[in-house]
Amino acid sequence: MISVTILGAGNVATHLYKAFKNTENVVVNQWYNRSLKAISSFKNEVEITNDLNQLKDANIYIIAVSDDAIANLSKLLPFENKLVVHTSGSVNIHDLDKKNKRGVFYPLQTFSKNANLDFTNIPICIETIDKADYHILKALALTISNTVKKVNSDQRKVLHLAAVFVNNFTNQLYRIGHEITESEGAEFDLLKPLILETAKKVQDLSPYMAQTGPAKRNDKKTINKHIKLLKNEEHKLIYNLLTKSIQKTHGR
């Protein structure tokens, strides 16, 4: 049995707690947050605390707070030589206070608090300073995920950057598409099968091979029509920028 203490109350912390709760080989023996109110709804399931000095012994302490708060929280921990890991995609493992054994437990996924996620399909990227700590962190990851990868801080940094492009930026394009359809009373829902098919294609094809559309075809007539249709100047800039990027990629 692996004992875990979770520190933080954001989306990642909440989803990790729920995932560990449903495993047989992990026990969350405590959940810390500065504000008890944020985790009070779980008080009948797990011991909660807002006092770092009341933290109990655990095999692994998981810091799941905002990136800017990770280093400071690790310094405030009132113990030494315990395995302390963070869940960030962009924070270096060495940002954790070296008084403890250090690691990273990074679930590569987008987390919304009310979304239902199947953790078995979420890749978990792990890293440790000491090789001896790698095995227990991998064992912990395997209790909830089918895909566990050893990823160093430099690799994780570029994975996180790429994730911003394929997730956050893509979602912003969805929002723009929603705004465009709504402006003329068209139904955004009609685009959802296209969104799903686009995501499905890159499971089997490289993004390069999956590319379609007027920019790849260098269909200038359609491109010009689209630009004229766009009333928002920012949307025009984005359309032109992405069109030129696709054309450059495909030699147009």
What does this structure look like?
With 252 residues, this protein is an alpha/beta fold. It contains 9 helices and 8 strands. It has helices spanning 11-21, 67-76, 131-142, 153-183, 192-201, 207-210, 214-217, 220-229, 233-249, and strands spanning 2-7, 26-32, 48-49, 60-63, 83-86, 101-107, 124-128, 148-150. An 8-stranded mixed sheet has the order 3-2-1-4-5-6-7-8, sandwiched between helices. Helix 3 links the parallel strand 7 (124-128) and strand 8 (148-150). It is elongated and about 65 Å long.
Could you spell the SSE succession in H and E letters? EHEEEHEEEHEHHHHHH
Binned, the helix content reads: 40-55%
Please tell me what the overall shape is: elongated
Terminal residue distance: 58 Å
The share of residues in extended strands comes to 15-25%
Return the average pLDDT rounded to an integer. Answer: 94
- Which strand order do you get reading across the main beta sheet? 3-2-1-4-5-6-7-8
Our Rg estimate from Cα atoms comes to: 22 Å
- How many beta-strand runs? 8
Structural class: alpha/beta
| Largest sheet features | 8 strands, mixed
Number of helices: 9
Q: Residue ranges: pLDDT <50 for 5 or more in a row?
A: none
